[in-house]
Design goal:
With about 300 residues, the protein is α+β, with helices and mostly antiparallel strands. The protein contains 6 helices and 7 strands; from the N terminus they run αααβαββαββαββ. The longest helix is centred in the first third of the chain and has 75 residues, at about 55-130.
Length: about 300
């Protein structure tokens, strides 16, 4: 599909460039041959001294040279425009192509994540329907298991809606001056980690211009990840000069996984042993991008990870 689109776009570029080139070539040709035509007309009307006559063959040859010079230049422009147009068409279509590929991957991954609990749910119900002697306790256990699968699907749906919300955030984020330290404290309370003794905080006042709700969500995701993969070891939160640093001493992230941790649905080998869908860091990155903030990550296997969020 994109090969045909690229070819069509190249043809459009080429048609526009050649139309402009031919138009100016005609103007140049008319301008450069105007004086020659004027002299020819004067010679026909006034019959000047033969010593001052210009040979008509020379006039004709001059016109031919101008014409072929312009033709050569236009041929060169045609070739150069074809190559340049094909290159520019590729550059123009590249973001669209990437967006469509990302969309395909997103739909595929989301479908896969939803299919797993649905398959389990379907299997459990089918088995239960075939069991003619199911007791009330067994039925309750089945319903509890089904409810857990439904909750997992609801959680995934909420993640997907949240990611979509922050990707199309033009009308929902409202910036105002906020002390980032207060947002960190609120995030800890929301996660019910404000009394966790393994979390050490060093929060200096740091006023930034941000959307409080989405920024709190970003902080919550990073703290929750540190707590989830921290193996109950110490977690440190520090804030100074608009830079929030969250460090844990847990499982860490491998060098191979590090470049992909912000990709949607991506989960490293160590992350697969924990609950999740690989969407949290994607949401965090999107929120940071919406604020013009940067997220930096340093990590070593079995030594922990450090996430830095630097606000402008």
């Amino acid at each position: 599909m994109f090969k045909k689109a690229r070819t069509k776009l190249t043809v459009y570029y080429l048609a526009i460039i050649m139309a402009i080139s031919i138009f100016f070539s005609l103007i140049i040709y008319q301008s450069t041959t105007f004086e020659l035509r004027r002299i020819e007309n004067m010679q026909r009307i006034r019959k000047p001294n033969p010593a001052f006559l210009i040979d008509p063959d020379i006039v004709k040859e001059t016109k031919s040279r101008i014409f072929f010079t312009l033709l050569t230049i236009n041929s060169f422009i045609l070739g150069l425009s074809g190559i340049s147009g094909y290159f520019l068409a590729g550059k123009t279509l590249a973001p669209i192509s990437k967006m469509i590929e990302d969309q395909k991957d997103f739909v595929s991954n989301a479908s896969h994540e939803l299919r797993t609990p649905l398959s389990v749910l379907k299997t459990q119900i089918e088995v239960a329907l075939r069991d003619k002697e199911m007791s009330l306790d067994e039925a309750k256990k089945l319903l509890e298991s089904n409810l857990e699968d439904v909750n997992n699907m609801t959680k995934l749906s909420n993640y997907l809606l949240e990611l979509n919300k922050f990707q199309n955030s033009e009308n929902i984020i409202k910036f105002k001056k906020v002390d980032l330290a207060n947002l960190v404290i609120d995030a800890l309370k929301t996660l019910k980690l404000n009394d966790d003794k393994t979390i050490k905080t060093e929060l200096n006042k740091s006023v930034i211009n941000c959307d409080p709700d989405s920024t709190k969500e970003l902080i919550s995701i990073l703290i929750d990840n540190a707590h989830k993969y921290g193996e109950s070891k110490e977690i440190s939160l520090s804030l100074r000069n608009k830079e929030l640093k969250i460090s844990d001493k847990g499982t860490g992230i491998s060098r191979e996984d590090l470049p992909h941790i912000f990709d949607r649905f991506y989960r490293g080998d160590k992350a697969r042993s924990h609950d999740g869908y690989g969407l949290g860091l994607s949401i965090a990155k999107q929120i940071a991008d919406n604020h013009g903030a940067k997220i930096k990550v340093e990590s070593k296997i079995n030594k922990g990870s450090t996430f830095k969020v630097i606000f402008s």
